[in-house]
Recover the amino acids of this structure.
């Protein structure tokens, strides 16, 4: 038989739904919002600081100027599909240097990084020392190759 002091403690309560009538548990005249004022009448934006726009947070933040100001600041990795790895010989190691030598990548690959995606088929076993998608990893292993961890480069 279970004892009361051995039961799991449950001490979370649902929040009262303010302004939703008497059945909500917070009914009545002001519905838990207080008497008057802006908070009693409607919602206030998160960034609202009153009318003092000169000192507001958004005015104090620096502007990003120029043509690409809405684009993300971090560039994406260069994508190399598996079908391009058929240029390599059997059991060859695929890394940044070997991709540069074969002409699959240009110098931007060293700064931005590379990721191998699974578009196409691989015809021979390779040793890949680059980040791969799950689909690309499955195709490399199916062809008899292996994925080296990035520390083994």
């Amino acid at each position: 038989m279970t004892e009361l002091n051995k039961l799991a403690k449950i001490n979370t309560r649902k929040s009262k739904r303010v302004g939703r009538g008497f059945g909500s548990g917070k009914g009545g005249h002001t519905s838990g919002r207080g008497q008057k004022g802006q908070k009693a009448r409607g919602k206030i934006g998160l960034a609202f600081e009153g009318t003092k726009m000169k000192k507001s947070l958004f005015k104090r933040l620096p502007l990003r100027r120029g043509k690409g100001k809405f684009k993300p600041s971090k560039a994406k990795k260069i994508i190399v599909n598996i079908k391009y790895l058929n240029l390599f010989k059997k059991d060859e190691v695929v890394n940044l240097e070997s991709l540069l030598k074969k002409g699959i990548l240009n110098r931007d690959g060293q700064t931005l990084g590379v990721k191998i995606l699974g578009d196409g088929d691989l015809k021979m076993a390779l040793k890949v020392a680059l980040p791969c998608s799950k689909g690309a990893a499955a195709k490399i292993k199916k062809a008899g190759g292996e994925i080296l961890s990035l520390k083994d480069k």
The helical segments are 38-41, 57-60, 96-102, 108-112, 134-142. The CA atoms of residues 76 and 124 lie 29 Å apart.
